[in-house]
DNA sequence: AATGCGGGGGA
DNA sequence: TCCCCAGCATT
């Protein structure tokens, strides 16, 4: 099994290589001069989804204001939030305060000293628990953050979508295997994140000077830019449907939706899609056939707005009800046909249409 | 499993 | 612009 021994060899050398790299390249950061769990915890919370450059001055300010966890516990929450101002994700500050008080008052100031205990604290999730447990207490538990996903995906050529639960498990298991070979779990955890932050960067990683160049699958196959794979959260597409609801007595003009779009084979009213939101008939152009028909009728009520959220689209609809006189015998455009109220009821329709009918006609 | 939650920096 | 950043809590 050649591939297996190769993979194991790469895994075996991984942690020590990064630890050696770290000793040569690490930045001098204030929270790296302490093993005080309070300070490490504070730094980790500040750095959640936050770059070192942005978080560093805040860390200094907080340590000045609250040198110990008891100081933070006694502080006024508004004061904490003021210090936090500008960092974002303000629940972090509230959770910080809550945990500071809990540790001070309920745990007699003794900071939780294991991964499992740390996990129970407000604002401490899997990442932060692993970070504090390893940095402050030397526990051999691997951190998995955005840097780790990137480094592991590239070095080991893992193309799984990191936004999925199964991929997260895969990466966590690999990371936990890798840390077993580390000389010092605290150093190793710092090392892989520092490596991701300044060498194996999201764009333009410095592969030419990389100590893992020879074993990096991404480098060997030229896929640095493609890894890690992260599903783009497709922005919800905004669409604007203007529905002309033609009425004649108790009949309504409806058509079947055809073609490669939403609501295939469902029935709707005369539908005109616009690029921008509209609120009145006069704000957009009607096809000639439709315009001619509209002119013969009267707008019978204020336009009605409706919204329908699909997985990747938000349909904002406006319904304009036009009542036509019996004298109109024009052929209906756009494949529209007249349906009695009972027939309309039986047609398959999008919820958006059904809701409108219910709202308008009960 | 999906969302909401912030603000800044770099390409 | 878009993406990403030492993620977490809630539903």
UniProtKB/TrEMBL annotation:
<feature type="domain" description="HhH-GPD">
    <location>
        <begin position="46"/>
        <end position="198"/>
    </location>
</feature>
<dbReference type="GO" id="GO:0046872">
    <property type="term" value="F:metal ion binding"/>
</dbReference>
<dbReference type="InterPro" id="IPR015797">
    <property type="entry name" value="NUDIX_hydrolase-like_dom_sf"/>
</dbReference>
<dbReference type="GO" id="GO:0034039">
    <property type="term" value="F:8-oxo-7,8-dihydroguanine DNA N-glycosylase activity"/>
</dbReference>
<keyword id="KW-0411">Iron-sulfur</keyword>
<dbReference type="InterPro" id="IPR005760">
    <property type="entry name" value="A/G_AdeGlyc_MutY"/>
</dbReference>
<comment type="similarity">
    <text>Belongs to the Nth/MutY family.</text>
</comment>
<dbReference type="InterPro" id="IPR044298">
    <property type="entry name" value="MIG/MutY"/>
</dbReference>
<protein>
    <recommendedName>
        <fullName>Adenine DNA glycosylase</fullName>
        <ecNumber>3.2.2.31</ecNumber>
    </recommendedName>
</protein>
<dbReference type="Pfam" id="PF00730">
    <property type="entry name" value="HhH-GPD"/>
</dbReference>
<dbReference type="GO" id="GO:0006298">
    <property type="term" value="P:mismatch repair"/>
</dbReference>
<dbReference type="InterPro" id="IPR029119">
    <property type="entry name" value="MutY_C"/>
</dbReference>
<dbReference type="InterPro" id="IPR003265">
    <property type="entry name" value="HhH-GPD_domain"/>
</dbReference>
<dbReference type="GO" id="GO:0051539">
    <property type="term" value="F:4 iron, 4 sulfur cluster binding"/>
</dbReference>
<dbReference type="InterPro" id="IPR011257">
    <property type="entry name" value="DNA_glycosylase"/>
</dbReference>
<keyword id="KW-0408">Iron</keyword>
<keyword id="KW-0234">DNA repair</keyword>
<dbReference type="GO" id="GO:0000701">
    <property type="term" value="F:purine-specific mismatch base pair DNA N-glycosylase activity"/>
</dbReference>
<keyword id="KW-0378">Hydrolase</keyword>
<dbReference type="GO" id="GO:0035485">
    <property type="term" value="F:adenine/guanine mispair binding"/>
</dbReference>
<dbReference type="GO" id="GO:0006284">
    <property type="term" value="P:base-excision repair"/>
</dbReference>
<keyword id="KW-0479">Metal-binding</keyword>
<keyword id="KW-0326">Glycosidase</keyword>
<dbReference type="InterPro" id="IPR023170">
    <property type="entry name" value="HhH_base_excis_C"/>
</dbReference>
<comment type="function">
    <text>Adenine glycosylase active on G-A mispairs. MutY also corrects error-prone DNA synthesis past GO lesions which are due to the oxidatively damaged form of guanine: 7,8-dihydro-8-oxoguanine (8-oxo-dGTP).</text>
</comment>
<dbReference type="Pfam" id="PF14815">
    <property type="entry name" value="NUDIX_4"/>
</dbReference>
<keyword id="KW-0004">4Fe-4S</keyword>
<keyword id="KW-0227">DNA damage</keyword>
<dbReference type="GO" id="GO:0032357">
    <property type="term" value="F:oxidized purine DNA binding"/>
</dbReference>
């Amino acid at each position: 099994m050649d591939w297996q021994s190769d993979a194991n060899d790469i895994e075996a050398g991984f942690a020590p290589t990064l630890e050696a790299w770290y000793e040569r390249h690490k930045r001098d950061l204030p929270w790296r001069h302490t093993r005080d769990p309070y300070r490490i915890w504070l730094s980790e919370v500040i750095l959640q989804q936050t770059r070192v450059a942005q978080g560093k001055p805040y860390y200094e300010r907080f340590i000045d204001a609250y040198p110990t966890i008891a100081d933070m516990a006694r502080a006024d929450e508004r004061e904490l939030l003021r210090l936090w101002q500008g960092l974002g994700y303000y629940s972090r500050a509230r959770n910080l305060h809550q945990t500071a008080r809990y540790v001070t008052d309920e745990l007699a100031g003794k900071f939780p000293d294991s991964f499992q205990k740390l996990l129970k604290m407000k604002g401490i999730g899997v990442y932060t628990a692993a970070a504090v447990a390893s940095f402050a207490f030397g526990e051999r538990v691997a951190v998995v953050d955005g840097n780790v996903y990137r480094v592991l995906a590239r070095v080991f050529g893992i193309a799984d979508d990191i936004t999925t639960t199964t991929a997260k498990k895969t990466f966590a298991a690999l990371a936990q295997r890798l840390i077993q070979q580390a000389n010092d779990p605290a150093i190793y955890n710092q090392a892989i994140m520092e490596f991701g932050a300044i060498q194996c960067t999201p764009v333009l990683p410095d592969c030419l000077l990389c100590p893992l160049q020879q074993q990096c699958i991404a480098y060997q196959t030229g896929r640095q830019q493609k890894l890690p794979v992260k599903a783009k959260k497709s922005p919800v597409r905004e669409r604007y449907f203007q529905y002309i609801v033609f009425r004649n007595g108790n009949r309504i003009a409806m058509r079947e939706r055809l073609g490669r779009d939403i609501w295939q084979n469902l029935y709707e009213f005369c539908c005109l899609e616009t690029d921008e939101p509209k609120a009145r008939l006069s704000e957009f152009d009607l096809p000639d056939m439709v315009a001619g028909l509209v002119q013969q009728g009267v707008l019978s009520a204020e336009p009605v707005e409706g919204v329908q959220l699909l997985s990747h689209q938000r349909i904002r609809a406006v319904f304009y009800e036009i009542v036509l006189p019996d004298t109109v015998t024009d052929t209906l455009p756009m494949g529209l046909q007249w349906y009695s109220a009972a027939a309309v009821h039986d047609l398959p329709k999008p919820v958006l249409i059904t809701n409108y009918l219910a709202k308008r006609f009960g």
